[in-house]
Design a protein that fits this description.
With 342 residues, the chain is α/β, with parallel strands linked by helices. It is 32% helix and 20% strand. The longest helix is centred in the middle third of the chain and has 16 residues. Bound molecules: beta-D-fructofuranose. It comes from Rhodopirellula islandica.
């Protein structure tokens, strides 16, 4: 890292992100890279000049110590990361099969026992959220499904959701990144986690799981999106990633500027990655830019274009993260009404 990742003064003000879940080492045949979707998102947000609270756990081993060291160097707070004695830090063996990552995810590791951070950490982030709310800036709590595999994390995630999302005095949405990593997933968890979620990111297979039927065309997806938006009263936005075909965003009636319930989804293309090293972390990259735009109240379409563009750039990294600050220089200050070119 070559310079500070603390918020740059020209950046528009932003709400607060609380990111909960796994931190681990992605072990490729030739190198180890920091990973875990929530860590990747928190890392990217810090790179964009935001100050997320990352809630996770590492072991008191060399791998855990190195994670904490790297987070501090990057300007990412470790206040929400527990160090658990006698437990191993998370690791994943990553291989590429026809260019697609295959993950062998070790079970029973430190991030399977994430405690709720202590009162003073929770109170100080709540204070920041209140201040953001007073300025009209939304905040957000992000989680996925991998960390949800352990019963104790289920409790932590629900406690954090209740603690932050049920506070009437603050504007905070839950961002649920379904991000299935089979076999560490149970479709029944969707029934636990969809109610209360405001923004949901999912791919086409995950959307079929959620809809309870195979969705094979864009009109199928559109019909399913309307059903889901009707079914879940908190749901404002379904973000569907379509791989090389880009992404689409279905908004609830109240979130659409037109206010017309049956509006078409906003669709954006994905620039072809150049170079293409591996797609590990591309979905996390997309989520990160969407979150940064949301926390800054930026309009949806240009944010989505920035998001697919950044996801393509991450495909040019080995693994999901970089420690070069220049990699994270996205101009969120460019005229928000000007849609960036594809
Ligand atoms: O979180 C599970 C896995 O998914 C990734 O985040 C990529 O999206 C990897 O870094 C990690 O091994």
């Amino acid at each position: 890292m070559t310079d500070s990742s603390i918020a740059r003064s020209q950046d528009p003000p932003a709400g607060v992100a609380i990111i909960v879940g796994e931190v681990l080492w992605d072990c490729f045949p030739d190198r180890q890279v920091l990973g875990g979707a929530p860590l990747n998102v928190a890392w990217n947000l810090a790179g964009f000049g935001l100050l997320p609270l990352f809630v996770s756990a590492v072991g008191d081993d060399d791998l855990g110590t190195e994670i904490l060291r790297r987070m501090r160097l990057w300007g990412l707070s470790t206040d929400g990361v527990a160090v658990l004695p006698g437990v191993s830090t998370g690791t994943v063996a990553v291989t590429l099969l026809n260019g697609e990552p295959q993950y062998e995810i070790v079970r029973g590791v430190a991030y399977d026992q994430i405690p709720v951070p202590n009162e003073s950490v929770l109170e100080s982030v709540k204070q920041r959220i209140r201040e953001a709310t007073q300025q009209g800036l939304p905040s957000l709590l992000y989680h996925g499904t991998l960390a949800y595999r352990s019963p104790s994390n289920r409790e932590t995630i629900h406690r954090l959701r209740d603690h932050f999302a049920d506070d009437e005095a603050t504007q905070l949405d839950v961002f649920f990144d379904i991000n299935v990593r089979k076999p560490h997933y149970d479709v029944a968890w969707l029934d636990d986690l969809m109610p209360g979620a405001g923004l949901v990111k999912l791919n086409e297979d995950e959307m079929s799981d959620l809809a309870g039927r195979k969705l094979s065309s864009s009109s199928d997806r559109r019909a399913a999106a309307r059903e889901l938006l009707d079914k879940y009263s908190n749901l404002k936005c379904l973000l569907v990633t379509l791989g090389a075909d880009g992404a689409e965003c279905h908004l609830s009636e109240s979130s659409q500027s037109s206010g017309v319930g049956d509006a078409k989804p906003i669709t954006v293309a994905a620039p072809e990655p150049d170079p293409l090293i591996d797609p590990v972390g591309a979905g996390d990259a997309f989520a990160s830019v969407v979150i940064a735009g949301h926390l800054r109240n930026l309009p949806v379409e240009p944010t989505l274009k920035r998001a697919t563009r950044f996801a393509s750039q991450v495909c040019g990294l080995p693994g999901a993260t970089s420690d070069e600050t220049s990699f994270y220089r996205i101009d969120f200050t460019e005229d928000p009404h000007r849609v960036p070119d594809d």
